[in-house]
Design brief:
- It contains 7 helices and 7 strands.
- It has helices spanning 4-20, 25-29, 68-72, 87-100, 119-128, 143-147, 175-182; strands at residues 57-59, 65-67, 77-83, 107-113, 136-138, 154-159, 164-170.
- The longest helix is centred in the first third of the chain and has 17 residues, at 4-20.
- A hairpin with a 5-residue loop joins strand 1 (57-59) and strand 2 (65-67).
- It is globular.
- The strands form 2 sheets. It has a 5-stranded mixed beta sheet. A two-stranded antiparallel sheet has the order 1-2.
């Protein structure tokens, strides 16, 4: 019969051997604090903060074609929120709907459904989740999701000139989103 001490030693040895196979792991244990993201050239066409968003056109959950620059021509900005219709997204979207959207009537808010795969499935998810009154873009081939390097909860703000003023920021409590929207021209 194995003793508890022997089993613990075996587990410790297995863990150490596993970590030994992770080349460079000690770098993760002593982070430098350096920002190693590539430098973004601002003012050019691109999908990073400080760049000018490329125009896009996609269907909404009602089957209408929606274009970014068409929306920007009638609003002070566009907010894209990437949703999976999960409980976390529901919490974010409920907060955004009740606490942020009413304060910015000239900003166009879009939920971006990147998981449903079709207009019909997206509309069904939208309605069953209680968001029939919020514009929803159907990213059936995940083109928008990929171009903005998004994930669940990513929030992108684009000003009326097409500049990406905030991007790749997961929605938390709406404070940063509100500050960003207040700063829009």
């Amino acid at each position: 019969m194995f003793s508890v001490r022997l089993i613990m030693r075996a587990v410790s040895l297995a863990a150490l051997l596993g970590l030994a196979g992770c080349d460079g792991i000690t770098d993760d244990l002593r982070p430098s604090g350096d920002d190693n993201r590539p430098v973004v050239e601002e003012g050019i066409l691109g999908t990073q903060v400080g760049q000018i968003s490329p125009d896009f056109s996609m269907l909404d959950s009602l089957g209408n074609t929606r274009g970014l620059y068409d929306e920007l021509s009638t609003s002070t900005g566009v907010v894209l929120y990437f949703t999976m219709w999960c409980p976390i997204c529901d919490t974010h979207m409920s907060h955004m709907r009740s606490e942020v959207m009413p304060n910015f009537p000239t900003v166009q808010f879009f939920l971006v459904d990147f998981v449903s795969g079709s207009v019909a499935a997206s509309r069904s998810a939208q309605l069953s989740s209680g968001y029939g009154g919020i514009e929803t873009l159907v990213d059936s081939d995940q083109a928008l999701y990929g171009s903005y390097d998004a994930s669940m909860g990513t929030t992108v703000v684009i000003d009326s000139a097409g500049n990406i003023v905030r991007m790749n920021e997961d929605y938390k409590d709406g404070v940063k989103l509100t500050e960003t929207l207040q700063a829009l021209p």
